[in-house]
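agent> Task received from the user: take the single chain below, predict its 3D structure, and emit structure tokens. No templates, no multimer pairing.
agent> Plan: (1) validate residues, (2) run structure prediction, (3) serialize to tokens, (4) report one or two observations.
agent> Step 1 OK, no nonstandard residues flagged.
tool_call: predict_structure(input=
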Amino acid sequence: MAFRCILLFSLILISASSYGQQSRIIDRNAIGWYVYNGDHKLNKRWELYTEYQWRRVELIRSWQQSLARVGLGYKLTDRVKLGGGYTFFTTFPYGDYPVADAGVPTIESRTHEDIQISDKLGILKLSHRFRLEQRWLGLGTDTNPRQVERWEYQNRARYQISGTVPLNGVTIDDGEWYVNFFDELFIGFGHNVEQNIFNQNRISSGLGYQFRDTFKFELNYLNQISQHPEVDPVTNKPVFEINNGFRLTIKYDLDFSGQ
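)
tool_result: status=success, residues=259
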């Protein structure tokens, strides 16, 4: 536990240092993220993970991003799970300083590997997730930005701590409410990350309701701080997004094991 606390504190210091090194442009957006995910049991050890995120700005009016993810998980022990998968990601032009070039969406393909460790402190259930990502960002041609000319490779590391607290009794049972939260830090590395060593941080908390063990609903407040990969071409200052809004999540798991 002490090691994990030290690691988390170190990561926060890195992000704070990067965030405060120089004057910056702030781009604020109201966001609404609508999320589905599910862990679908294949057998005693293996599970199929599916996820889709419909991310909007102005809460719901306009596109921010689209994320589709599929992966496999392997339960090494009751407390440790290994995973890996593929994500197809689209970013649309939004905000006062859009990342997308020439007003058209940009696409990204990525793979990832992660390890998830579960903890329990009284009624608090904690999860630590360490993830490595390999990212391929599509770069368009000068004459047709919608046509991918080449792929730029980047690496990213992520650490997430999340937890749940039951509001009725000591466990979360069917038909009961609970509190949930998470914080996730993203760090870019490698020669193509440009300004993105500190990539972003997300912090969220809210209420969840368990209809049954395989079907849950969560509504959270979400704060996202994200640094753009390139400086503003006019002022030569780094651009930071500070996005605030909500995240609506439906978790629905299926059992294909036949057990």
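agent> Step 4: summary for the user.
The longest strand covers residues 148-166.
agent> Done.
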